[in-house]
Specification:
- The chain has about 350 residues and is α+β, with helices and mostly antiparallel strands.
- The relative contact order is 0.19.
- Helix 1 packs antiparallel against helix 2, helix 2 crosses helix 4 and helix 3 packs parallel to helix 11.
- The strands form three sheets. It has a seven-stranded mixed β-sheet with strand order 2-3-4-11-5-6-7, with helices on both faces. Strands 9-8-10 form a three-stranded antiparallel β-sheet, with no helix packed on it.
- The chain has eleven helices and twelve strands.
- Bound molecules: nicotinamide-adenine-dinucleotide.
- Nicotinamide-adenine-dinucleotide binds next to strand 6, strand 7 and helix 10.
- Nicotinamide-adenine-dinucleotide (NAD) binds next to strand 6, strand 7 and helix 10.
Length: about 350
Amino acid sequence: MATERVLIGHDALRGFVSDTFVSAGSSRREAHLVAEQLVEANLAGHDSHGVGSIPVYVRNVRSGNLPLNQSLSVVLDSGPLLVCDGNGGAGQVMGHDAIARAIERTREHGACILGLRNSHHLGRIGHWAAQCAAEGLVSIHFVNVISAPAVAPFGGTAARIGTNPFAVGIPRDNDRPILIDFATSKLAVGKVRVALNEGKALPEGVLLTPDGVPTTDPAVLFGTPRGVLLPFGEHKGWGLGLACELLGAALTGGKTQAGPKSRDAVINSMLSIVVSPERLGTEESYFAEIARFTQWAQSAENRDVLLPGDVEAATRAERIANGIPVDAKSWSDIVAAAASVGAEPPEDIVQRPS
Ligand code: NAD
């Protein structure tokens, strides 16, 4: 049975999200940055990190777990080393402003090691890699998540770590950047939520019940006690998720997930390494070798070989043209969250059922 969905134009959706956050108390700039990143995530096809996050964000604003209109605190600014504290404020602002500073430092010094700790949810991490790539800069991002632990270490069945995302942005010459961006669990929590809202079963081998029994029922992840996601790639995903935990948080002066959830906020800390190929003196060979390699990698007879970032670019083009699909349950939750802060969508926002 087809899931009921609504279709919404990206500009109208941006406007509604922005109005919602202004009604909740955000400055226009904050509301704009939140709307921009959430809608970009939907355009990229990552509905798990798009406007479906609004009910959680609004709940956190109302409970004091997402303080609005915070500014980034610069804790250390020493040559290529930059450490910032997000003060638990909106990740869309903290991520944007911290990365903008890291880009400045990279222009100055050729590279920057940025620690951004204690930010509220940073959303789609590829967004920050894309911000660097738009300036011709390579970037690598290790991120930890402080929330209810959702993922078991390899070999375990108890949730001990978050879905800790990892991203790399690789700009190219006259072509869109390669954007590698994923959770280190088999599925991101938001994707399990989307499956639940759409009434779909999960693939096998992704989720365990709290007793450690494999299940495909997405509701298990949100039960009490909660189910447990598994790391992707067995021991390799566990290793990368661990690196995200320790580099994203411990090295930046942030907090690791060393215990059960203590409050409702979703806190991210991120280590970003930003490099200028131009300042490294390798720009010419960098671009030439990337073109040579990608051509070779895609030259086999299997013409379905894609580069990371291709799927998102294709989805973006399609959704800009035809609208963003939102499942009916998520949409009614979003509208209810907006109503709780006194905002409502324009009457004609829904284009047509898909
Ligand atoms: P995913 O499993 O959809 O993987 C996405 C990556 O795989 C992208 O780089 C994409 O281009 C690439 N890809 C997809 N199909 C491909 C193909 N056929 N060939 C080559 N490459 C391909 O991502 P995910 O794990 O579901 O993560 C979704 C989003 O969630 C990410 O943007 C991530 O940053 C975000 N996230 C954020 C948090 C947080 O706390 N802020 C936590 C977890 C995940």
